[in-house]
Design goal:
The structure is a homodimer of 395-residue chains. With 395 residues, chain A is an alpha+beta fold. Chain A folds into three domains: 112 residues, DNA Polymerase III, subunit A, domain 2 (DNA Polymerase III, Chain A, domain 2, Roll), CATH 3.10.150.10; 130 residues, Roll (DNA Polymerase III, Chain A, domain 2); 132 residues, DNA Polymerase III, Chain A, domain 2. Chain A is 20% helix and 40% strand. Chain A has nine helices and 25 strands. The longest helix of chain A is centred in the first third of the chain and has 11 residues. Chain A is elongated and about 80 Å long. The mean pLDDT of chain A is 92. At the A-B interface, helix 2, strand 9, helix 6 and strand 21 of A face helix 2, strand 9, helix 6 and strand 21 of B. Strand 21 of chain A pairs antiparallel with strand 9 of chain B, so a sheet runs across the interface.
């Protein structure tokens, strides 16, 4: 190997490829990065066996070759160099690097030992701009389950059933709360054929780690991200890189049924005001009781946020809200007085509430309360494509 | 207690008083902050028994009183409030706080249980502006010893012997490297009488924790900091606060004798260039060998920075330098050829080198190398008031 590239491009590549979190300590070569000349470019690759990333850097290649070197050392070294040309030469598994007045030798391990990163040779199913997909993933990521007991909900559900209407739906849940985001694609960015070729896939589950990695790697540009899907794997092609991840197995829960389509109390609130009130209420919770109460006062148009931890103290904040009431058919069969009091309030886990408002875009949020027995639905007043559902805590 | 103050002032006070690091878990009340009305102001106090801080907040006091409340909860709560008036009322050991639409009750513990923060009733020995003292402390702090085996070097030595010349000297060492900073005071800011009253004190040792706390609390203003000294304690009065700390006991080492006043090789280098070269060289050190070699090439005016860790690789960087040689009297009695090679290079602990250049003000640094047997001296080319001494590692 003998090549020249710029420090700037190499550093950009390492910011993507060099940051895969690798928990595998039994295979030390996974702490290395694979450098390989590839059709007049330098390809950098990294994998943790669950996902792999490739990144191509424009180079002047004098001699082909491949080697692996310790990722952190190589990345830290390159990031410390001045913005100038970097000369890379391989001699007997030692990488000689020269840049400006810096001369370095880094000991490598043979590329032969490095695990193969799989390829998918297929057409993209859809394309979407980097920043739009990144935003959507960030909004729903907090709702993904962290518990390994139900592996199928430890990823984001990508529903492709409405692709013929140019829509994709992203869903995350941990069974206590749920986030659903609908994205509308441009017609020319959808390729319905590709799915048929891949065996009539209508949905996939993308592991949480892959989503986190993608959020870190996608930039805030309008560049198109291409998504390629096979039965077991998903490939994201963006800028000069691609990332491939295995898919999660299992059947995603039929979540649609839990989203209520009727509501009893609706409160429109300023997102910043209620978020701050929730943060303050969060100071008065503890491990035993981390619940926050929301209570609507229709006559005074106030939503009260309160919490209490007996040994610390208590807090309550009145947030201005526009409140509407709506008695449902089902309530009429029940004791009406009792229902009327109940449907205006509910208790929620502090973190679920705080995550929910954290994902809301725009100035105002709409909160649809259904009492303590039915889920509460949260949306932005201006962007209804994101729905956040929280199951109240029963008193 | 019944008073009103502004959220802004209370929050400022808590940023100072609320951040004392408290390792004492046997006395839970130390996790609390003491609130007490004091001559028409609210006094906030905190202590970890080694040092204590008081901060006065202008208030409209309706009723006197005192209470202690959990520091973190109170500080987090106040910092979340809008910039408005805060009403504080005490009822049966519960603090009622109202601000804008926020209403909170925080359970307190009686002020009677809170340890007394000592007072020094004396005149300040000297005054100096906040930012100048803070900068000086920051420059020499890294050289303070962390080892508890020699307690007297775990603090900063404040030498007052030259106070009659309006100078104070701050010194830190861990016995491998040493930092000395001389500060020149304005004549009107020195009160020589005060020391005589305190029993002819010529120096004190300020504990590292107190120095760290002071660095955190001093702002970057020209406001005068007043320093009051007694036999066992030191008091810093700044802005609306004062901080009192015990002094360290023991005899500070006679450090003057180890600073060489002659040198064999002098190199003038750009601070940014050599700092970056040292950072890069630091990537190629490990636990067993964390040494970096500096070697001067007088004929080419180059200072070479290099390091090698057999299992990782090696690095060397050529930094432009202005190099002067100086054969000492003592060298002439020895084998001249051998000396000439030796005096141009030495090995240093990576961190000592990096801390040393980190403290240098100005564009250029002067490095005075004396071979591997005598200390190396580092100063700024423009500010000779800071001297950094490093003992080389013997090969």
């Amino acid at each position: 190997m003998n090549l020249i590239c710029t420090q700037e491009n190499l550093n950009k590549a390492l910011n993507v490829v060099g940051k895969i979190i690798n928990k595998n300590t039994t295979l030390p070569i996974l702490n290395n990065i694979l450098l390989k000349t590839d059709k007049g470019r330098l390809k950098l690759s990294s994998t943790n066996l669950e996902l792999g990333i490739n990144y191509w850097v424009g180079s002047k290649v004098e001699e082909e070759g491949e080697i692996t070197v310790p990722t952190r050392l190589f990345a830290n070294f390159i990031s410390s160099l001045p913005n100038s040309n970097v000369e890379i030469k391989l001699k007997d598994d030692v990488l000689n690097i020269k840049c400006d007045k810096y001369k370095t030798n880094i000991k490598g391990l043979s590329a032969k030992e490095y695990p193969l990163i799989p390829k998918i040779e297929a057409e993209p199913v859809f394309k979407i701009n980097n920043t739009e997909f990144k935003q959507a993933l960030m909004q729903i990521l907090p709702a993904v389950s962290s518990s390994e007991s139900r592996i199928e909900i430890t990823g984001i559900f990508l529903d492709l059933a409405k692709l013929s209407q140019n829509k994709i739906i992203l869903v995350a849940t941990d069974s206590y709360r749920l986030a659903e985001k609908t994205l509308t694609l441009k017609k020319e960015n959808v390729n319905k054929e590709a799915l048929n070729i891949a065996g009539n896939i209508t949905s996939v589950i993308i592991p949480k780690n892959a989503v986190q990695e993608l959020i870190r790697d996608l930039d805030d540009s309008e560049n198109l991200l291409e998504v390629v899907i096979s039965e077991n794997q998903i490939l994201f092609r963006f800028n000069n890189a691609n990332m491939i991840s295995r898919l999660l197995e299992g059947k995603y829960p039929d979540y649609k049924q839990i989203i209520p389509n009727q509501f009893r109390t609706e409160a429109i609130v300023n997102v910043e005001e209620i978020s701050n009130a929730i943060r303050v209420a969060g100071l008065f919770v503890n491990v035993a009781n981390n619940n926050i109460k929301l209570k609507a006062y229709p006559s005074s148009n106030i939503l009260e946020v309160s919490s209490e931890a007996s040994e610390i103290g208590s807090n309550n904040t009145k947030v201005e809200a526009e409140i509407k009431e709506n008695i449902l058919e089902m309530d009429k069969t029940d004791n009406n007085t009792k229902i009327e009091a109940e449907i205006k309030e509910a208790m929620y886990n502090y973190r679920y509430l705080s995550d929910g408002f954290g994902g809301i875009d725009g100035e105002k949020a709409i909160l649809k309360i259904n009492g303590e027995k039915l889920p509460t639905v949260l949306t932005s007043a201006t962007d209804k494509d994101l729905i956040y559902v929280i199951m109240p805590v029963r008193a």
